Amino acid sequence: MINLIDRRLNGRNKSAANRERFLRRYKEQIRRSVQDMVTERSITDMERGGEVSIPARDIAEPQFHMGPGGDRERVHPGNREFQKGDAIARPESGGGGAGGSQPGSGESVDDFVFSLSRDEFLDLFFDDLELPRLLRTSLGQAKRHKWTNAGFVSEGAPCNLSVSRTLKTALGRRIALSGQVRRQIDQTERRLELALLAQESDEAIRTSVANEARAAAEAGRIIAPSRDIDAPATFEASEASKVLTAELDRLRDRLRRVPFLDELDLRYRNRVAVPAPVSRAVMFCLMDVSASMDEARKDLAKRFFTLLYLFLTRKYERVELVFIRHTDNAEEVDEKTFFNDPKSGGTVVYTALELAHQVATERYGGGDWNVYLAQASDGDAFGADAGKSARFLADCLLPLARYFAYIEVRSADDRRASSLWAGYEALDADNFAMRHVGERSEIYPVFRELFSKEAA
Amino acid sequence: MSLQAQPISTGSDWTFDLIERYEAEIRVCAGEFGLDTYPNQIEVITSEQMLDAYASTGLPIGYQHWSYGKQFIANEQSYRKGQQGLAYEIVINSNPCIAYLMEENSMMMQALVIAHASYGHNSFFKGNYLFRQWTHADGILDYLNFARRYVMDCEERYGVIAVEETLDSCHALMNQGVHRYRRPAPLSAKAELERIDARREHARMRYNDLWRTVPGAAAIASSGAQGVFPAEPEENILYFVEKYSPKLEPWQREIVRIVRKLAQYFYPQGQTKVMNEGWATFWHYTLLNRLYDKGLVTDGFMVEFLQSHTNVVTQRGFDERGYSGMNPYALGFAMMQDLRRICEHPEPEDRRWFPDIAGGDWMKVLDFAMRNFKDESFIGQYLSPKLIREFHLFAVADHQSNSHLEIDSIHDDAGYARVRRLLAEQNKRDTILPDIQVSRYERDGDRSLVLQHQRLRDRALDTAEAREVLRHLARLWGFRVKLEAVNETGRVLDYLECVP
């Protein structure tokens, strides 16, 4: 009568499709929420999921409900001191009265909060652009090598001998080579046993046994001819046992000749050298924080820096960040100050480059670090600053760096060449790239473009 | 049978073998009490799958819709945070009756769920008149499959967004999508498909390219037959939309129909919460105690069982933390237990209140109650003064003419009958949901649709939400939609209007 079914292996994510529909539908709200998160979070913190909250009103499913007003009675449990006719002050509206079994009264007016997975978060963060998985291995040439295991081979240095693997192979070979012989030995032993039994039987009974056997054989021929007893065999038992013993010796000898260990069995651990990247990288974020860089531009810059950071973390085991902001003089600051602390003043790019150079040589010198530099600015530079900066970049900074990326953040319609842009334009180095970014959606394409030179 | 039987198991781990043995023993006990059930199908699932099942209103198969995703996310969220445990069970009113067991549960919980769902709920589904009258346990799984496939098919043809919009609008009107007085035709996926084909075939046969060329085709003289249509108000708004909406595409009509059928399927569930849960709780309590009496379960099992059982049937007072209205499990279980007590150990008070059942055969009385009542009538009939006292029930009157709330009645001699009537009223679908019906369709005029909300005791609708719902209705209807609020005398007090 009972039908017990194990459904545990059935599809688990039946609701995944519905969940995805929900995200699609409320993309706008979710995106807004992600936006807030981005401004709150630090760059290193960006690569994880997050809690998103959507105003409950936005996702409510409307139904006809009774509103307040009118006459009604409700029954509640747990009376302690009330008597009929007592008057109670009306509770403040908004609490929804004292609850009840009405459908919908259980819905809270709080925001609908839920978490996004890391991928979902990043998708929204980059405005539904695919993450740069393609580029993962393409940035830069690795200079170091690392030895790693790469299976087993049959030739190698004795120090690399893998004992367990060798014995395993030997065992397999022995089983394969001796199987048939063992089977034959078994059979022969059984036959020999029978022969010996027959031989042991008494000489006196032997004749009668033989007669009986002959009679039985004649009778059996009618009933069961297959169970014929070979009577003369008993007479030749001793002869047969001799033959069988000899056969057994021969077989055992063959078995002995299968070696316990053969040269074929030897297995050596295979070690190969694979190119490994230097596992440490440092990323310099340089940003102009003069008054002309407003929140929107800073936000663009932040996204760019974040993207680069995410990118580097995929490639390097450890990535350090150095934040250098500048107006007319440069200073190294922590991330919070970098993005949130306003500072006013002019714009001298050169100071920032100089500081970056100083930090790079002092703290990250010696070739152990991959140095990446990313600069964001609106491009304003006064007088000789642009030319000086470009020269300094070419002479001192670029030789140190794996890559230098410059993005100029400015509104889309403003395409006149800035002074810094003009200065940098003259540079011609493999590890230097620069682009304009006007809108958030442009960040990723620009990013791809910036690094395509190296990817090619 | 021997009273010194060995316990079926002692540890808390379950195996398929043990589940079968427990089920067999529970079945024997259920047989002793004469429970009549559909055949059982028990499915073991993981907690994730339970979350999945939750999201689709407990149905094993459902069409895809964002609202289920929202539900899923909300459940998952609170489950992960530990704010909410998963319900013990989900049981589906189908034939065979499907109950889910969660992998993570202990053997005791599995036995509890089997007794609760596979025997308690199952027999209720099979016996209660509302379920017998309004649902078709045999066809539901088939129909759900059909619905899912049909919706997916539409998404492919007409786009996900278009289908989603239609579904949203239908969902908004789901509560107004049931027939309360007419028995629906049995659900059959095959018949549905045939009907759709027939509709398509009809359109194909009627198609005549010539009509396109007739000049002024739009100017078809109106028949002139004036009068109110529909002649009688129609309570099932979705039904009316499906049949008469001037603008809906055929596939949209089908979707309206699917949502309407589902609403109808859930119609009895909402009206028998107290009874259904009370009945199932009563039976898991009775059946597992019977197992204990037979010596088939250990003391440890019973202690664990009583702990979860007590959690389920806790009723918090109105001023305690976590109070959220009457707990249907608590009330239902107490009432079922009380019925048994009235039969077995009646007191003079019970003889006065329930002369026909006091001292009777409790199994017959309970069976009768289960079969022939819904929450409203069940409470109205069987809530005893003793329970009113135990729950310390009291009624609060909230009248708009009065600046204060007033205690209407409490658990005393003068109040028993009134508290009971009010609690019954409170569990009546018709007082919970507003009474909204289609009153006019200007077929020959501007094709607008007029709904009327019969205001009861001056209780108005939540206007902001009603406006949203009207917007959905207007989308389905395609022309102006108007919602009038009328009082008992039929005078129009107020109206809302929405143009698509």
Question: What is the rounded Rg of chain A?
Answer: 43 Å
The CATH fourth-level homologous superfamily of the largest domain in chain A: von Willebrand factor, type A domain
* Helical percentage of chain A: 40-55%
Query: Using only CA atoms, what is the Rg of chain B?
Result: 26 Å
Through-space gap between termini of chain B:
71 Å
Oligomer class: heterodimer
- DSSP, total strands of chain B: 9
Overview of this structure, please?
The complex is a heterodimer of chains A (456) and B (500). Helices cover 44% and strands 18% of the residues of chain A. By secondary structure, chain A is α/β, with parallel strands linked by helices. Chain A has a six-stranded mixed beta sheet with strand order 10-9-8-11-12-13, with helices on both faces. In chain A, helix 5 (163-200) packs antiparallel against helix 8 (237-257). The model of chain A is unreliable at 94-109, 128-142 and 223-231 (pLDDT under 50). Chain B has 500 residues and is of the alpha/beta class. Among the domains of chain B are: 16-128 and 272-307, no CATH class; 313-430, no CATH class; 434-498, no CATH class. In chain B, strands 6-7-8-9 form a four-stranded mixed beta sheet. Chain B has a three-stranded mixed beta sheet with strand order 1-3-2. Chain B has a two-stranded antiparallel ribbon with strand order 4-5. In chain B, strand 2 (91-92) and strand 3 form a beta hairpin. In chain B, helix 4 crosses helix 12 (273-293). Mean pLDDT of chain B is 86; it is low at 217-225. Strand 1 (3-6) of chain A pairs parallel with strand 1 of chain B.
SSE blueprint:
The complex is a heterodimer of chains A (456) and B (500).
Chain A: E1 3-6, H1 16-25, H2 27-40, E2 50-54, H3 56-59, E3 72-76, E4 87-89, E5 112-116, H4 118-125, E6 144-153, H5 163-200, H6 203-223, H7 231-235, H8 237-257, E7 268-276, E8 280-288, H9 295-315, E9 318-326, E10 330-333, H10 335-340, H11 349-363, E11 370-377, H12 385-400, E12 403-409, H13 419-425, E13 432-437, H14 440-455
Parallel strand pairs in A: 8-9, 8-11, 11-12, 12-13
Antiparallel strand pairs in A: 2-5, 6-7, 9-10
Chain B: H1 16-32, E1 40-45, H2 47-55, H3 66-80, E2 91-92, E3 97-102, H4 107-127, H5 129-134, H6 140-158, H7 160-172, H8 189-206, H9 210-213, H10 237-244, H11 250-271, H12 273-293, H13 299-312, H14 328-344, H15 348-353, H16 362-372, H17 375-382, H18 385-391, E4 394-398, E5 404-409, H19 416-426, H20 429-432, E6 435-441, E7 449-454, H21 463-477, E8 481-486, E9 492-498
Parallel strand pairs in B: 1-3, 7-8
Antiparallel strand pairs in B: 2-3, 4-5, 6-7, 8-9
Helix pairs in contact in B: 1-4, 1-12, 2-3, 4-12, 6-7, 6-8, 7-11, 7-21, 10-11, 12-14, 14-16, 17-19
